[in-house]
Amino acid sequence: QVQLVESGGGLVQAGGSLRLSCAASGTIFSIDVMGWYRQTPGKQRELVATITDALRTKYANSVKGRFTISRDNAKNTVYLQMNSLKPEDTAVYYCWVVSRGPYWGQGTQVTVSS
Q1: Which stretch of DSSP H or E encloses residue 112?
Q2: Tell me: the pLDDT tens digits for 33-55?
Q3: How many Å apart are CA 104 and CA 88, to the nearest integer?
Q4: pLDDT for residue 101 is more than 90
Q5: DSSP code, position 63
Q6: How far apart are CA 78 and CA 12, in angstroms?
Q7: Residues with Cβ < 8 Å from 84, sequence gap 6 or more?
Q8: pLDDT at position 56 over 90
Q9: Least-confidence region, from 28-32, 38-42, 104-108
């Protein structure tokens, strides 16, 4: 089993920045893909960004140029640097890891005020 612990959410004004972190622990053989999804009430969870073990990244069009995903394999940690935040980025952000199966974090709230 893999446990994911997220941190870094909070309240920020539009135009500001936040950095999310997600640390994986437990029985980890290898982590293929790490990423972030987000969800707002009444909507489906949507992909924000992913990064493979080969450091290939993928971003939602809505965050390209503003968000940067990175990972530290030695720490089994994935980061999401969010800049130029907009009110529409407000959501619960979930860490997602694929390690012989998908795992989800508990979610961290990001609120961007206008």
Answers
A1: strand 108-113
A2: 999 999 999 999 999 999 999 99
A3: 23
A4: no
A5: G
A6: 21
A7: 15, 17, 66
A8: yes
A9: 28-32
Bridge partner list, 38:
46, 93
Burial of 41 (0-12, 13-18, 19+ CB in 10 A): exposed
- The residues pairing with 20 across neighbouring beta strands, listed in sequence order, are 80
Is pLDDT at 19 greater than 90 in this prediction?
yes
* Rounded-to-integer distance, Cα 22 and Cα 94, Å: 9
**Burial label, 113 (beta-carbon count in 10 A; 0-12, 13-18, 19+):** exposed
Q: In what order do the strands lie in the sheet with 67-72?
A: 2-7, 18-26, 77-82, 67-72
C-alpha span between 50 and 92 (Å, rounded): 16
Helix (H, G, I), strand (E, B) or coil at 102: strand
Phi, psi of 102 (to 5 degrees): -85, 145
Cβ within 8 Å of residue 31, ≥6 positions away:
24, 53, 73, 76, 97, 98, 99
In the chain, the amino acid numbered 107 is G
What token pair was written down for 112?
A: 């961007």
